[in-house]
Design brief:
The protein is of the alpha+beta class and 214 residues long. Strand 6 and strand 7 form a beta hairpin. The protein is rod-shaped and about 135 Å long. Helices cover 24% and strands 21% of the residues. It has two helices and eight strands; from the N terminus they run H-E-E-E-E-E-E-E-E-H. Strands 3, 4, 6, 7 and 8 form a five-stranded antiparallel sheet that branches. A three-stranded antiparallel sheet has the order 1-2-5, with no helix packed on it.
Length: 214
């Protein structure tokens, strides 16, 4: 009968064996499909060959969002050393024979990379209450010498321990401040002496008065 094709049982059996050469692969992701950002991820294209065709060799490819991540290769795994949010997307893999006569794709797998953990709540700093400014007082009395710094005694039970000693930097700053105050007092002393000399000289000039010429 015209238009009718007849396939022999042997041809149909060979075609069926070719199609059933291996199962459709399944894409697996380790450790999970929602990895943390910065962690490594491994994609595995898993399929199984029948025992009678165990010597056959398959080549594997990996895809993401329609783009090829790795072309055909003998390894069924693809590793991403450090994932980021840019690695989120739809992935699938493909297994094919070396002669490319049989190739099968896996179902798509969605991978969503999670950002850094934000479990720790951010600490908020509250400003310390400010004390009102003390009114300025003016004093004509020169400041007296500073009292000597008290040094802790070993007999004093309230003296500081080696773990809570005074800050050596503070001692250095206090020493510098004391020296500056002493220098200012010396300069003020010289200034007072010069003012006294100038005052006595002016008094002497005024007592003499202008010289009269006959």
């Amino acid at each position: 009968m015209a238009g009718v094709f007849y396939f022999s049982p042997a041809l149909l059996w060979a075609a069926q064996m070719l199609l059933e050469l291996f199962r459709a692969p399944v894409l697996r992701v380790t450790p999970s499909a929602e990895p943390q950002e910065g962690k490594p991820v491994t994609l595995s294209c898993q399929t199984k060959l029948p025992l009678q065709r165990s010597s056959a060799r398959l080549l594997f490819s990996f895809y993401k969002d329609g783009r090829t991540m790795r072309s055909r290769g003998p390894s069924s795994e693809f590793q991403i050393p450090t994932v980021s949010e840019a690695h989120s997307g739809s992935y699938w893999c493909e297994a094919a024979t070396e002669d490319n006569q049989v190739w099968k794709q896996s179902p798509k797998l969605e991978i969503r990379v999670q950002g850094p953990s934000r479990s720790a709540a951010p600490t908020t700093l509250t400003p310390a209450p400010q004390k009102p400014d003390a009114p300025e007082t003016t004093s004509t009395k020169p400041p007296g010498p500073l009292p000597p710094l008290s040094t802790p005694s070993s007999k004093d039970p309230d003296s500081f321990s080696p773990l809570q000693g005074p800050d050596p930097h503070l001692y250095h700053q206090m020493g510098v401040l004391l020296k500056q105050i002493q220098d200012m007092r010396v300069l003020l002393g010289h200034l007072v002496i010069e003012l006294r000399d100038l005052s006595s000289h002016l008094k002497l000039e005024t007592t003499k008065g202008p010289t009269k010429h006959e």
